[in-house]
Amino acid sequence: MTIDRSQYLLAAFLVAVGGYVLYDASTLEKGFADQPVQPYAVPNVVGAVLVVLGVLLAIATARGDVPEAEEGEDVDLTQGTDLRTVGLLALVLVANIALIDWLGWAITGAILFTGVAAVLGSRTHVRDLAIGTALSVGSWYFFYVALGIPIPAGILDGVL
Amino acid sequence: MDMLLDGFQTALTPGNLLFAALGVLLGTAVGVLPGIGPAMTLALLLPVALTMGPDSAIIMFAGIYYGGMYGGSTTSILLNTPGESSSVVTAIEGNKMAKSGRAAQALATAAIGSFIAGTIGTVLLWVLIPSVADVVVKLGAPSYFAIMLLALFAVSAVLGSSKLRGFIALFLGLAIGLIGTTTGQARLTFDQPLLADGIDIVVVAVAVFAIGEALWVAAHLRRKPLEIIPVGQPWMGRDDWRRSWKPWLRGTAYGFPFGALPAGGAEVPTVLSYITEKKLSRHPEEFGKGAIEGVAGPEAANNASAAGTMLPLLTLGLPTTATAAIILVAIQSFGMQPGPLLMENEPDLVWALLASLVIANTLLLVINLPMAPLWAKVLQIPRPYLYAGILFFATLGAYSVNFQAFDAALLLVLGVLGFAMRRFGIPVLPLIVGVILGPKVEEQLTQALALSGGEVSTLWSEPVAVVVYVVMAVLLLAVIATAFRRPAPAAEHHDEKELVER
Predict the structure, then answer these.
(1) A48 and chain B: CB distance < 8 Å anywhere?
(2) CA-based end-to-end distance of chain A
(3) Does A134 contact chain B (CB < 8 Å)?
(4) Chain A within 8 Å of B400 (Cβ-Cβ)?
(5) Distance between CA atoms of B382 and B225, rounded to whole angstroms?
(6) What are B435-454's pLDDT values in tens digits?
(7) Nearest residue of B to residue A58 by CA position?
């Protein structure tokens, strides 16, 4: 019998989330007199059920339940999970989060596109950067001018 | 009737017609593109759509919805890779037809069948929605509370292969829905003022659909090119027509009611239609080798159920598919209250949407039938660019909601959750529905109890509520019964696989 041990991680996660929801609910005070449903009532139910679901998942896992990973056109499940690629992608996204307020979307968007393309195996970096820049500057103007959504320009304020 | 004509007037203005055409093209393109479905596209487009005005946005969304369903059948037939669970059945016979050189006929019967089913379904909506809306408006908070509970339960337990995973998704969604200060006290906000209003549903949807998908594909990227069967112009011979028209109608008859149920979805009716056609066919020996009935019926069922989905969505505010869930988010984001009062408060919008469904359907046939060879080329976009583009627009969309790096960070965190859900086979729809409906369930419960002065028996004081609880009990018993009969939780999905291989 194969046991998917990593599924215990998910079970633990569910118990932890449920536990935190319960803890958070316990910090709430009794609501106003005209509140027939106390603010902690629904969180108590949700938290408790999450804990139970986590336990059930752990039991199911121990009994040999294996998850059915999602398939797709570009997905090849015959090979193992390529966590390095996922990590690098996450890193690109984190860089975007860290820099976006300072550099502005027109710059970080281009970095984001180029970075993701490179991580996913594109080797034409100059062309990628050109496409990324066109996309990010173009989308900035599209949002700003055509849609009237003023995306902050970051350090390019006054340049764009 | 006047309302319907007004609806056509709104939908047929040149601007809105343009948005409908744009929606159909976009929808088909993303339906064809691997990794992107209509729900994800709508999620990515939400921020842009919010600046367009409700009519145009909803009309474009209708086009994307139908276009996406159509595009999905193209990949099923040409690649044998159904993008959504509802086109699994199409792939069985459709790809066999393509392999034996009949791709053009398979694409044509799918397109024409979708058109006929979608049109009949939309006409049924015109007839049904006003009367259903009249009934629904009279429902009190207890009935409404019961119906929403049923929807949550049905979406988690009936759809998908694992009930346990369905409920895990639902309760994670409910937990996300708790975040915020709606009750006057901060719940689950981690003392973050940015979380006081809860997490924007746009951010949640984009994260679990787009970021989750991109990360998941990145982890398992197929490094070899796809094998695509070349297509010519779709057309059908006399014999194909003769063999297709009955399956189209039968598929429609299966699809619409299932779509209209709160526990809807297109999986069940497409499978039922396939089995029926196999039984009724005069050429049963062709099934499994490319029988045209096996494409015509399920494709019609698929589209009819998409139309049926609009019934609970527009009358009750209940989404039963991921795409319907995002359309609901859009309606909410425009400051309208989806649910029983939508028909009363926004009749113009509802009728414009109902009219545009037929327009989208017609455009789909007129624009797309000649363009099938072109769509096959879309499949060849280099994957690094495709997924870089998805992450790019997802980030832009989430960021443009409030211009906060915090939203981009939330996007990543929830995107990792979306990745884990795909890894552990946890369905996405119950989570989204939980986030949307969770706060409403609490609101209806509060309202019902406030009116009765806290008397709990009010919850089963309305006949509709009682009926709904009985239905839930029956469903629950059925779930428990199947759980005992089949101890191996993976067994259920097996049937579907067998179907595909047969």
Answers:
(1) no
(2) 61
(3) no
(4) yes
(5) 9
(6) 988 888 998 898 888 888 87
(7) B164
Tokens, residue A151: 């995306």
H or E element: which one contains A84? Answer: helix A83-103
Domain ranges (residues) in chain A: 5-63, 96-156
User: How many residues are present in chain B?
Assistant: 502
Interface of B with A in 365-384 (CB under 8 A): 382-384
Question: In B341-404, where do the E strands start and end?
Answer: none
The count of other CB atoms within 10 Å of the CB of residue B37 is: 24
Tokens coding A58 = 């752990």
Instruction: Give me the percent of chain B exceeding a pLDDT of 70.
Output: 91
Phi-psi region of B396 (alpha: psi -120 to 50; beta: other; left: phi over 0): alpha
Chain A CB contacts of B218 below 8 Å: 82, 85-86, 89, 119-120
**The model's pTM:** 0.84
Q: Sort out which chain B residues have CB atoms less than 8 A from A43's CB and list them.
A: 178, 187-188
Plot region of A121 (φ>0 → left; ψ -120 to 50 → alpha; else → beta)? left
Q: At what angle do helices A6-26 and A41-62 cross, to 10 degrees?
A: 160
Best B187, B223, B442, B444 residue to mutate vs chain A (most A CBs within 10 Å): B187
β partners of residue A75: B221
User: Residue B277's CB: how many other CB atoms inside 10 A?
Assistant: 25
**Selection from B18, B137, B9, B116 nearest residue B70 by Cα:** B116
CB B461 within 8 A of CB B53: no
Q: Left (φ > 0), alpha (ψ -120 to 50) or beta: where does B449 sit?
A: alpha
Averaged over B141-155, what is the pLDDT?
A: 87
Cα–Cα distance measured from residue B126 to residue B105, given in angstroms and rounded to the nearest whole number: 31
